[in-house]
Structures are given as structure tokens and as C-alpha cells.
Amino acid sequence: MTRVFGPTVYVLGAGASVHAGAPMLRDFLSAARLVSHVGSPDVLPHYEDVAAFLRYLDGLRSIAYYVDTDLDNVEEVFSLLEMGKQLGRADCAELIRKLKWTIYETLDNYTQVRWAQGHQLPDNTYTTFVRHLVELNKERAAMASIPGPGTIHDTVVTFNYDILLDHALHAAGTRFTYGLEGDGEGDLQLLKLHGSLNWGVCSECRGSPQVVSPASDAWIGPARAMPGEGQQLALRMATRMLPGTKCAKCDKVDKLEPLIVPPTWSKLIEGSHLVPVWNRAVEAISMAYQVVIIGYSMPSTDTFLRYLFSIALERNGWFNRVVVVNKDNSDGLRQRYRDVFGRSLGSRGKLQFVESAGEFVRFVLGPMLEVGRNM
Q1: Which alpha helices (H) appear in the chain, and where do they start and end?
Q2: What is d(CA 364, CA 368) in angstroms, rounded to the nearest whole number?
């Protein structure tokens, strides 16, 4: 039998979904401008919110004369508005609402799936990723006699709102849990620390998050022309699927909006529905054999990831390595990771960098099957 030691926690940043069209944080608002430019009120349900927010953004250009601010980076703009809101500026709360709909419209238009054989097919890259995860966890499930925490399931922790991985998991018939209160258990954990486009919160009754499957074709109804075979489709979760889903608590339609927290310095999770999700992430890292970080640039401003690892790893006595999968091979990116993990892992060769998807499969997923022979 192939021996699999683990478990592994996969951490996904924005770069993990960029191949499917999801924009990076630094390019997000530039992508939103293109959506607004080619769209119209007939196509985009929240076109006016998007247009109004972009007009506000244009009015901010003058501050770049005094302060070095990247107004194409959604994280910087969100942080600016969040600080204004916490200081009591009423206009900032309304602008945050418009910015959220700008995010939803942009992700809904840029994340693409393919229509074939009467269904929307999940993204190929995530489908391959799911297949490997399922195979590795089946191997581990057959090793119940191996001592230590290595027999528990793998976990994916993501900072992304998009539902491309969720879609692939649903299509594969994989049982998984989001870690939300009352969500139950599964063969894998998908923990979305900033929320998700398919976690609907009713604006009317404000009940618990309602999970809507991204694999549903319900939004493609008789009122719309059926797609052609092989056609690429925008996966419109926030602007079509959620509004078309009835609230499970109050039975009203067109009231579900995505549960997300802003990608800012404050994260705003205290007292929210995301607390159990974050607790699960800490627990998973505290029992991990290795962490694989995919498509995340480790910005120096994001202290929360550092704190997350610090809290989790203080209880992990068998943690082995961190593998960084990123096309960015710059000294800057590597140094940012060394600043976080370099003192212990880096000096022992346990902080490793992988650049390509093929190398990721060979170096990360393949050798995991051989780890037991080298311990």
C-alpha cells in the first residue's frame, strides 16, 4: 500500500483562481472598470452601484498627489473606507455597500465555467486538484493504524470569495464542510476565511448563512437563451443564483446577499458567522504535517496570516514544512516568506518554493505519497 503521511493544509490566495479569470487584488478595480464599460443596466443588476462607486474612485485620484495610494487595489480602497466608517463617516457605509456590489458583479462576470452536455462543467484545474485531494485522503483513510494525527482529512483554507473550487467539489460528489455553525462534517474541509459568494444572508430577516450550491443550473431558465455546446459562461452566483433562491427562514426571494468580510487590516470577524470557520482553520494548522500555500504573495501588510500561523503552530509538535506555489519567483516574494518562516523552517530547508502547476503536482502531490518512506 502507498503510505501517505499528513494531513496537509492548503492555503489558497487570489493567484489560485487567476487562471479562470478571477482578478488579483492589485488589478481588481481595473477589472471592475472593464465590467462597467462593456456592461449596461440591462445586463448588470447592480450597474448603477458599480458606476457610482467608480465615479467616487475617480474623485479620489487627487490624494495620490500627497499619499502613495494604489486606487486599483481593492484592499487599499476597502481599508480606506472601513477606517472612515469606524470614524463615523456615514457616506463610507454606503460606499462600502456599493463597493461590495462592485466586487460581486466583477467576480460574477470574470469567473468562467464551460457549458457541455446540458450542464455547466467545473474549472479543469480545480477538477484536477480535487481528484488529487480525494485520492490522497482515500490513501490516508486506509492507514487508520498509523499513529499520530496523520489519519484526519486534509483542509483547504482560502481567502477567496469565488466558488470555483466549491463547484469542482460538488461536481465530483465530494462530501465537504465549510465549517459554518450547523454545517456538519465531510471528507474534506473548505474553510473560506473571508466568506463566500454562495453563503447567502437574508437582508430581510438576517438569519444564519444559507449555503447555495454553485453546481445548480437553475439560473439558466426559459427566459434566457440556452448556451451553446462548449460555450464559456459567467458563473453568476451573487447576482443571479442567490437572488433567485428563497430564504429558508422567511421564504422571501431576492433577499439573499453574499456573506463576505472585507480583505482589510481589520478583517471584522468578531461576533460574526465566520468565527467557527477561523477556529477550524486554527485547529487544522495545529495538526498539519505540512502547509502548501498557493497563489498568495504574503503581503507585509497582512499580519493576520502571521498571527493565524503563530496561534496554530504553538501546539503542533510534528509540523514538517511549508511549500509555496507561486509563479512569482522574485527575491521579494521569497524574502517575505523567509521573514515569516525563515528562522526555523528556512534554516533547515523546510521552506520550499514551487513555480509551475506541473511542478506542484510532481513535487507536492506526488511526493506526499512517498513521504512515509523518507521519514
Answers
A1: 28-38, 47-59, 74-86, 90-110, 124-141, 164-171, 275-286, 303-313, 331-341, 357-360, 366-368, 371-374
A2: 6
Q: Read off the pTM.
A: 0.87
Most confident stretch, 75-89, 252-266, 355-369: 75-89
Query: Buried b / exposed e across 258-282, counting CB within 10 Å, b at 16+?
Result: bbbbbbbeebebeeebbebbbebbb
64-71 own/partner pairs: CB under 8 Å, 24+ apart: 70/26, 71/29
The grid cell for 214 is 454553485
DSSP string of 243-290, one letter each residue: TTSPPTTT--SS-EEEEE--SSSS---TTSTTHHHHHHHHHHHHT-SE
| Phi and psi torsions of 17, nearest 5° | -115, 0
**Which residue type is seen at 29?**
L
Torsion sign across C-alpha atoms 115, 43, 102, 259: negative
